[in-house]
């Protein structure tokens, strides 16, 4: 009973950490949908894309560093430090009034968010053994709650509170999370291990690994672009900031609901078929979003994209786990690294194109990403049929 209770407390800590990571992933996309945010920082659309790039640079660096630190020193140091970095990044944005002043907070948010994401997932995986699959999905729900809560909160209080207090509230939540982790006891470190790029490069030669990697490159890039630019795009169509924020909230809600549905769908549909169907759904949703200015159609496009992308990343990882059982950890490390490069580059590309040609042209990037997912999913499906024959 005591062991079960302690495991529940640790899961609660992990859920709190991933909740804060959800806030990190949603807060900039939400606030940049408010004209006040760009005016406050005195930035254009290209610089907005650069802020997202810096965020993902931080996430990538933290992802590569956190694993070895967790293995050698345990989860506590990463969780406490990461939550503190998020608090610092949020506070930094609250007082930033230029792109230069926003650059360091963006990196801090990424470093903290990446550490929280890696450590919370590693902790739950260690805690639940054979039940890690279902429990990691449950953990993901708390990520969705954090990501969904920010646009809903902003939609409610927009016009009543300036941006700085909103960011300071988020900083306070992250700071409280750091204190919570500081007071908790975590399992001891397992062993000193590290991510080896030499091993990763060897694993890249495995049949199909790079295909999965580029599929996740497109998916992660699209998810970051939609989360980061939807409210800005909707605002450019002439709809109000509150409406744009609520539409973005619909995307995060659809993503969360979709992850609840994926487990049931996999009882009737193969993993590869699900990935292809998800890519096609996202392609249709992106086309609707890109070609319409009607509020109802924009909502429909965003909801379809969220539902479609919900199952792509975990299902692709499951395909990798099924296929490469001997080197699963190294394969996953390589796939995460490739995916994060997509998460970095796509929102940046949207910003560069938007600044030169307009946001509608910039949103062609996630449409192209969805098309890339479909092409790569078809190739994976053909490889499966070839192996069966």
Explained architecture:
The chain is mainly α and 389 residues long. The model has no long low-confidence stretch (mean pLDDT 83). The protein folds into two domains: 1-183, Growth Hormone, Chain: A (Up-down Bundle), CATH 1.20.1250.20; 195-389, Up-down Bundle (Growth Hormone, Chain: A). It has 16 helices and no strands. It is globular and about 55 Å long.
Q: Please write the CATH class name of the largest domain.
A: Mainly Alpha
Q: What class do helices, strands and sheet pairing give?
A: mainly alpha
Percentage of residues in strands: under 5%
Number of domains: 2
- The coarse overall form would be globular
Radius of gyration: 20 Å
Low-confidence stretches: none
CATH architecture of the largest domain: Up-down Bundle
CATH topology of the largest domain: Growth Hormone, Chain: A
Count of DSSP H/I helices: 16
What fraction, in percent, of the residue positions are helical?
Answer: over 70%
Number of strands: 0
Order of helices and strands: HHHHHHHHHHHHHHHH
CATH superfamily membership of the largest domain, which one? MFS general substrate transporter like domains
Mean pLDDT: 83
Main beta sheet strand tally, sense and closure: none
The separation of the N and C termini measures 51 Å
List the helices and strands and how they pair.
Layout: H1 2-31, H2 35-41, H3 45-73, H4 75-94, H5 99-128, H6 132-157, H7 163-183, H8 197-203, H9 209-236, H10 241-265, H11 271-291, H12 295-309, H13 312-323, H14 328-357, H15 359-362, H16 364-388
Helix pairs in contact: 1-5, 1-6, 1-7, 1-9, 3-4, 3-5, 3-14, 4-5, 4-7, 5-6, 6-10, 8-14, 9-10, 9-12, 9-13, 9-14, 9-16, 10-12, 11-12, 11-13, 11-16
């Amino acid at each position: 009973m005591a062991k079960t209770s302690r495991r529940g407390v640790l899961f609660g800590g992990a859920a709190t950490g991933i909740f804060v990571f959800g806030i990190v992933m949603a807060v900039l996309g939400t606030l940049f949908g408010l004209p006040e945010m760009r005016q406050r920082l005195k930035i254009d659309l290209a610089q907005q894309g650069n802020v997202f790039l810096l965020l993902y640079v931080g996430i990538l660096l933290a992802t590569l560093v956190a694993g070895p630190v967790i293995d050698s020193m345990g989860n506590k140091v990463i969780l406490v430090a990461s939550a503190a970095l998020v608090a610092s990044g949020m506070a930094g944005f609250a007082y930033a009034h230029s792109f230069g002043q926003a650059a360091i907070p963006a990196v801090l948010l990424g470093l903290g968010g990446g550490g929280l994401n890696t450590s919370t997932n590693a902790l739950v995986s260690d805690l639940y053994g054979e039940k890690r699959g279902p429990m990691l999905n449950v953990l993901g729900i708390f990520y969705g709650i954090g990501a969904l809560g920010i646009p809903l909160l902003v939609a409610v209080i927009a016009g009543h509170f300036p941006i700085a207090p909103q960011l300071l509230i988020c900083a306070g939540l992250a700071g409280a999370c750091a204190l919570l982790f500081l007071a908790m006891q975590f399992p001891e470190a397992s062993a000193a291990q590290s991510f080896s790029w030499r091993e990763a490069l060897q694993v890249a030669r495995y049949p199909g690994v790079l295909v999965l990697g580029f599929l996740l490159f497109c998916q992660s890039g699209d998810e970051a672009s939609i989360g980061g630019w939807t409210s800005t795009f909707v605002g450019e169509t002439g709809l109000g900031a509150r409406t744009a924020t609520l539409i973005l909230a619909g995307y995060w809600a659809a993503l969360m609901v979709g992850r609840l549905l994926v487990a049931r769908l996999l009882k009737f549909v193969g993993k590869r078929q699900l990935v292809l169907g998800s890519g096609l759904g996202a392609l249709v949703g992106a086309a609707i979003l890109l070609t319409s200015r009607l509020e109802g159609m924009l909502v429909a496009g965003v909801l379809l994209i969220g539902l479609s992308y919900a199952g792509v990343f975990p299902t692709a990882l499951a395909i990798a786990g099924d296929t490469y059982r001997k080197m699963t950890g190294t394969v996953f490390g390589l796939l995460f690294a490739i995916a994060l490069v997509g998460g970095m580059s796509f929102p940046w590309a949207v910003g560069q194109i938007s600044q030169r040609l307009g946001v509608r042209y910039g949103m062609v990037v996630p449409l192209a990403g969805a098309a890339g997912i479909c092409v790569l999913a078809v190739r994976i499906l053909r490889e499966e049929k070839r192996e069966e024959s």
